[in-house]
Q: What sequence folds into this?
């Protein structure tokens, strides 16, 4: 590619970047994350446009060498183009006959925190290389390209693969059959959204509790929270409210929440393998792209063994920013629940685990040292009556 062709390529890439900028500006979600990506793209584009002006206005043969370094195969200009195409694909933009076409129903923020940071890191490296080009230092630019090319391309490939994986938002019929077979346990005590919202006023004390806020974090430090209360105090309904709102708050993030209540309900007492297999099932239903880990283990159905479940939970956790686990009615099957809890504690990266149950002697001893919230101590008796009334109304409303 000669200098003239290189200049033409700069103009084409800059125009493509401008189109993506306009699309991102129209997105209504995630204003802070949107701003970070906009700044990175606009700054990289600005450097290219400045370089374009210099090559036109300043007559210097050295610019040809610099432009050639930028425009070589797999060089910064090509990498910028590929990065923009990756972002466009994630945003749902198509480029047909040089005209950008958009789907209004996709004007929503599609990036999780990890994906956003990966793309911004790539753009920052490209900005550094464009700055070297502006200094007309084609020798240092060539060295920078050679040193960084492999890293940038590796990161871009991983980012593109992750982007395409996470666009898988449903299971095939065959995959769905496999996932449904992982757990036959009846854990469907989930409340409908209207009932949860009705309970919100009576459960706000827990959602705003400092110990809950510390538990509800996506940092890599193990977080365990124990919630205790006498029978009928609303522990299970608090767990349902937590499950609903944590899921709602993290709809656009790479986060999952799974729950398991230890109530036989006429069935056999649950085993560790059943609990863990149920957790895997819930994760796959929330993030279908993680089915690739099931395929890699050649799983033919469930329930899974403890070893396979742990392996799948660890693989899924490695792909997620956080995985929240709620173990409700922990006291009903104490020994099995405790063994399951110990297994979950071994998962790396760590999980955030919420345990709810009656304050029995065994649980008090086994869970000593973990942060604890007692419903009776933390909440006035008046609110207990309010939540019971809301529970009754919600139950009647479903019949």
A:
């Amino acid at each position: 590619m000669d200098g003239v062709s290189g200049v033409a390529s700069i103009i084409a890439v800059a125009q493509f970047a401008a189109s993506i900028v306009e699309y991102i500006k129209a997105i209504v979600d995630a204003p802070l994350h949107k701003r970070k990506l906009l700044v990175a793209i606009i700054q990289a584009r600005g450097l290219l446009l400045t370089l374009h002006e210099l090559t036109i206005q300043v007559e210097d043969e050295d610019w040809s060498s610099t432009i050639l370094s930028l425009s070589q195969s797999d060089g910064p200009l090509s990498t910028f183009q590929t990065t923009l195409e990756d972002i466009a694909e994630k945003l749902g933009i198509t480029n047909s006959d040089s005209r950008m076409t958009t789907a209004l129903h996709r004007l929503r923020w599609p990036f999780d925190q990890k994906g956003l940071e990966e793309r911004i890191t790539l753009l920052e490296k490209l900005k550094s290389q464009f700055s070297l080009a502006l200094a007309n230092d084609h020798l240092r630019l060539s060295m920078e390209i050679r040193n960084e090319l492999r890293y940038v391309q590796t990161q871009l490939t991983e980012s593109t693969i992750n982007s395409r994986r996470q666009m898988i938002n449903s299971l095939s019929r065959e995959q769905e059959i496999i996932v449904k077979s992982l757990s036959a346990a009846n854990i469907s005590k989930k409340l409908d959204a209207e009932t949860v919202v009705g309970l919100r006023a009576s459960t706000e004390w827990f959602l705003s509790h400092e110990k809950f806020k510390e538990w509800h974090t996506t940092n890599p430090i193990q977080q365990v929270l124990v919630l205790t209360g006498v029978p009928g105090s609303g522990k299970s309904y608090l767990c349902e409210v937590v499950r609903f709102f944590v899921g709602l708050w993290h709809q656009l993030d790479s986060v999952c929440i799974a729950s398991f209540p230890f109530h036989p309900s006429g069935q056999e007492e649950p085993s560790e393998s059943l609990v863990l297999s149920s957790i895997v099932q819930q994760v796959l239903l929330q993030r279908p792209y993680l089915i690739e880990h099931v395929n890699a283990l050649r799983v033919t159905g469930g329930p899974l063994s403890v070893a396979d479940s742990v392996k799948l939970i660890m693989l899924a956790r490695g792909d997620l920013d956080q995985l929240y686990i709620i173990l409700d009615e922990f006291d009903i099957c104490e020994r099995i629940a405790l063994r399951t809890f110990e297994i979950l504690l071994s998962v790396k990266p760590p999980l955030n685990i919420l345990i709810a149950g009656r304050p029995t002697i065994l649980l008090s001893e086994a869970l000593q040292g973990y942060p604890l919230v007692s419903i009776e101590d933390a909440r006035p008796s008046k609110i207990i009556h309010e939540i019971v009334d809301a529970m009754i109304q919600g139950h009647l409303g479903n019949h």
